[in-house]
Amino acid sequence: MPSRASSSAGLALWLGLAVLVVLLDQFTKTLILGAFELGDVRPVTSFFNLVRVHNTGAAFSFLAGASGWQRWFFVGIGVAASAFIVWMLKKHPTQTLFCFAVTMILGGAVGNVVDRLLHGYVVDFLQFRFAILEPVFRGGYFPSFNVADAAITVGAASLILDELLRVRRGK
After folding, report:
1. Burial code of 139-157, b = ≥16 C-beta within 10 A, e = fewer?
2. pLDDT of residue 57
3. By percentage, how much of the chain surpasses pLDDT 70?
4. Is 64 helix (H, G, I), strand (E, B) or coil?
5. Widest pairwise Cα distance in the chain
6. Contact yes or no for 56/120 (Cβ under 8 A)
7. pLDDT > 90: what percent of the chain?
8. Three-state DSSP class for 55?
9. Residue 86: exposed, middle, or buried by beta-carbon count in 10 A (0-12, 13-18, 19+)?
10. Are strands 41-43 and 48-55 parallel, antiparallel or unpaired?
């Protein structure tokens, strides 16, 4: 069992990484807000654009058309998830991949909560287009996203990998 001091040092490391994710997320969003008007699109490659989109919903604009209550609903979910993740980090300090995964989710969740509190929406700016996506997404454009969303995705993939490795070790 890890000592209390090593657990605190580990927690500080993971929370520091989450803060870095939040800072990178907010920095990139500030750049976009300063350089783009809502709806602006700047092609970078044939399959990647920088854009400025405001998402009042959640992933894939879920509940974006609601009357405004969703802002506080998603803030509440983000705050509750963040508290739960900090508890998980304290409870499992020696599980490095697990802690990395939930830290990425924490940083992304807090980054998007900050947007909802400051603006009432989340600023998205990364847009990819792939022809293979056309049957699912209009024009093949994957829904725009941001650094926080990318961190959440990396965290979710890492969480799945961690569980697969845990199951494999158990056999």
Report:
1. eebeebbbbbbbbbebbee
2. 67
3. 87
4. coil
5. 54
6. yes
7. 71
8. strand
9. middle
10. antiparallel
User: Would you call 78 exposed, middle or buried from its count of C-beta atoms within 10 A (0-12, 13-18, 19+)?
Assistant: buried
* Closest to 77 measured CA to CA, from 109, 103, 122: 109
Query: DSSP label at 63?
Result: T
User: Which positions ≥6 away from 129 have C-beta within 8 Å?
Assistant: 47, 48, 49, 139, 140, 141, 142
pLDDT at 56: 78
Residues assigned a catalytic role: 124, 149
Contact residues for 128 (Cβ-Cβ < 8 A; gap 6+) = 47, 48, 49, 141, 142
Torsion 110-116-138-140 (CA) sign: negative
Length of the chain: 171
For the chain, which residues make up each domain, given as ranges? 4-33+42-170
Tokens of 77: 């979910």
Rounded to whole angstroms, the Cα distance separating 54 from 31 reads 14
**Quick one: which of 144, 140, 137 has its CA closest to 55?**
144
Task: Name the token pair of 17.
Answer: 């990484």
- Residues of the chain with pLDDT below 50 are none
Tokens for 73, please give them. 């609903």
Sorted by sequence, the CB contacts under 8 Å of residue 53 that are 6+ apart come out as: 38, 39, 123, 124, 125, 127, 144
